[in-house]
Design goal:
The chain is an alpha/beta fold and about 170 residues long. The protein has one domain: 3-Layer(aba) Sandwich (Glutaredoxin). Helix content is about 35%, strand content about 20%. It has 5 helices and 8 strands. The chain has a 6-stranded mixed sheet with strand order 1-8-7-4-5-6. Strand 4, helix 2 and strand 5 form a beta-alpha-beta unit. The longest helix is centred in the first third of the chain and has 19 residues. The N and C termini lie far apart (about 50 Å). The relative contact order is 0.22.
Amino acid sequence: MKVFLSLLIILLAVSGPAHAEQMLAAIPPGTPAPDFVLQDTEGKTHRLSDYRGKPVIINFWATWCPPCREEIPSMNRAWHVLEKEGIAMLAVNMGEDEDTIFIFTADYPADFPILMDRDGAVIEQWPVKGLPTTYIIAPDGTIAYRAIGSREWDDKGLLEKIRDLKK
């Protein structure tokens, strides 16, 4: 029995997370997304409520976070597909300045807007437990899904769930 349990634990460790990490957790319907106003690294102001009417992917991250680094390339690939479909993607950096982000994006290019929450005021309004945490906002401004930890954002299954919000 002990050997069986050990093998089961090994199988779950090898196969479980790979499948689980592509999942999105549904949020109870009607949960409003807290509005915010933040500047991006180029000085443009973004207000979440300005994106009403389209799905929005909001990713909370930091340059020092290894899982954040891991998912940025797939986010960038997804962005190049979703941008043409009227789906927005915003990455909210936690507490870092333009120079730090600029150096980071030399190694991890990101063509989508990177917003700066320098004082942490925005993250306090959102139920973020760790980095990265990503929320998928429905066109009506409610939170549809949450993902804690890194994902492959260009995964067909994830993209379909996000596209389905447009219907």
